[in-house]
Amino acid sequence: MDILIRGADFDNKGAEAMLRTAQRELGRRIPYVCFHIFVSSLEAQLANISGLFPVLCSSNREELLGSNLPIRVRRALTFLHNSDFRRAMMTSSGEARKMLKIKSVDAIIDTSGYAYGDAWNVDRCKDAWTWIDYCKNHHKPYIFLPQAWGPFEKGDIAEWTRRLCEDASLLFARDKESFNHLSSLLDKPSDKIHIAPDIAFRFQGAHSNIGASILRDVGYEFGTKPLIGIVPNMRIYGRTLGTGSNNKYIQLLVEAANYCINNLGAAVLLLPNEIKVPGKTGRDDRFLCGIIESLVTNNKYCFTIRNYHQSETIKSVISHLDLLIASRFHSLVFALSSKIPVIALGWSHKYSELMTTFGMDGYVCRHDRLDQIVVIDILKQAWKKRKDDKHRIAEIIPAIQRDVDSTFDLVAEVIRSS
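Structure (tokenized):
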């Protein structure tokens, strides 16, 4: 059996973790299965060493639309059944071109963490609909694994998302607010929309010795000071005023780091969640880590992860923290599933929904309400109560993981019966 996994990559550690979790959990439930993923040439080796079948996709639009390939274009068009699909192909980022790269699949799994809602361009919906239409016309399941959805106040986003969900074989929301957004959008009964936790709560990190080795390599000495992690987010940086050291979000994280070092007697680890695969260009979370490190007053106790690491390694590093302050959703999941207390500085409803599950909704601050006094006060409370929070997290995690197991049981059943 061949399963295509969409919505994942090797840059974002959360996306990679969901990919690896889907591969592991479905591989345990479905015999003789091969997992395929579209990758660039820079990611092909990472796919191979992960036991995934890489399907190389070109970024060259002319490969699909060039005048020297009319036969291949006509073959691609055999998938088209109406003018809407044709428009989707022409305006998407080349999903129809990718169909030329893979002969056939038995099911498609969508592991997008948050891709369908007003925060994103409608092309994401059109890309997905290309594959959903393929599955519908070839009687194959397209399954949306648990993710955040909505809101859907923009007409084009709402219409295209409605199309996606109406034709999907299985549909999961990972929180109540996402469920409510979908329920108000769709005509299907609400019992057709499943609620399930994020699948990365079942993600297996690397052995703790791996994370410990990384921490020693960056200069942290175990047994000297407790360690507090800070995970920044390029999306919040882009949504707040100022650039570089003048950015309000950066200034807040610097203030938090200084407080951890000077007032709590802790060391600080600056930890990126988005780390571009070697060879790729452009900024990632390490850009923000570098700015913060340069502004911390006592950087003797401030350490930074700079190299590329896979998601298993990053989770292993997080497992050694005493507290995590994070603006990346899956960094929070990595910590919580390792029984590490967290503070969330988020930019969407998914952060507050996650923290509410653990009774820690008082430890959340939105990007548009960031205030240094408020965040430092939250930090004081979280540090004081970290032992109690750790015990509470440990009590809640097993039930969440059982829910993830039930999710994969249902997904595997649908795939096997298709």
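The two ends are 11 Å apart (CA to CA). The chain is about 50% helix and 15% strand.
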